[in-house]
Amino acid sequence: MTPLAIETAGLTRRFGGLVAVRDLHLSVRIGEIFGFLGPNGAGKTTTIRMLCGLLAPSQGRAQVDGVDVGRDPEAVKRRVGYMPQRFSLYGDLTAEENLHFFAGVYRMGSAKRRERVAECLRRVGLWERRATLADHLSGGLKQRLALACAMVHTPAILFLDEPTAGADPPSRQRMWDLLYEAAGEGRTILVTTHYVEEAERCQTVGFMHRGSLIGRGSPEECKAGFAEELLEVDADPIMRAAALLRGAEAVSGVSVYGRLLRVFGRPGAGLVERVPKLLGAAGVAARTVRPVAPSLEDVFMSMTRLAEGGAEER
What residues pair up with 253 in beta bridges, in sequence order? Predict the structure, then answer.
């Protein structure tokens, strides 16, 4: 059995009457890239803060790198690197000075500190910009510097909260190249995102919704376990077709993608036959109606509806 880097049982966090994370049972293997996919407010950041030892659980337990988070949060902090959503960089310090500061927080000796700072700057492509103030770096370079600061003490586990939010495609690709390099060295990485294309890059995806983990698996496993019938429909006028189908029996959801609709329904509902008839009866032309394989976004939206116990208009 592969040893676990992270394991939780019944992990819960309340803020007054609000349950931000509810009864979380999670296991992440050593060396795995695990992605939390969910909208803002789903409980992803709260989960990370508990696992980093920054926020005490209301109930349940969690072990990170073999250490009980509730019993020894300080030991957990020494073993992990954390890159928060909002940069913890000091804008009036240079890139190099920021790294020296964070290395000092972990009481790294001066010789070792210089070695690690230089190594991290080169690794993230900031050696030539080492004397630049953090506030003068572009958004993508700030993200790379924040990652370097999270890695300067060579942690076993990296927690990254929306690490590429707002980044352009080249910057996002560079960040993921760095994460794959870190995972290749045996580090465990837990990353949160609300971008489906980001989740596709992870080995395992956990779907968060309203504080609960509603599903998990590799992207391929999640798609293979899709629990609804899914059609792609080319109809005209498209918005009238969408309105008609949203109110139809056996249709659980409808999404508009440009000039096409994706229509979700109960397994075995026979939507391929029913949809053209329904649209035709209302005077809407259906050019094509065909079954399609689900994307990870389709899977997540379907899981969300099933978790809520009903259809959801989109």
Answer: 264
Report yes or no on 313 lying in a domain.
no
Question: String of b and e for 84-120 (b: at least 16 CB within 10 Å)?
Answer: beebebeeeebbbbbbbebbeeeebeeeebeebbebb
Nearest Cα residue to 190 out of 159, 151, 150, 148 = 159
Read off the pLDDT band of 103 (50, 70, 90). very high
Q: Residue range 156-170: average pLDDT?
A: 91
Q: Which pLDDT value is given to residue 311?
A: 43
Do 266 and 131 fall into the same domain?
no
Enclosing domain of residue 185: 4-216
- pLDDT tens per residue, range 179-190: 999 999 999 999
d(CA 191, CA 36): 6
Tokens encoding 82: 């954390």
Residues 163 and 35 in one domain: yes
CATH code: domain of residue 233: 3.30.70.100
Q: What's the mean pLDDT when you consider all of the chain?
A: 93
Question: Can you give the pLDDT at residue 314?
Answer: 36
Q: What angle do CA 52, 108, 164 make, to 5 degrees?
A: 45
Q: How many domains does the chain have?
A: 2
Q: In Å, what is the CA distance from 31 to each residue of 4, 14, 65, 178, 207?
A: 9, 30, 11, 14, 20
203: alpha, beta or left? (left if phi > 0; alpha if psi -120 to 50): alpha
Q: What does the DSSP 8-state code read for residue 228?
A: S
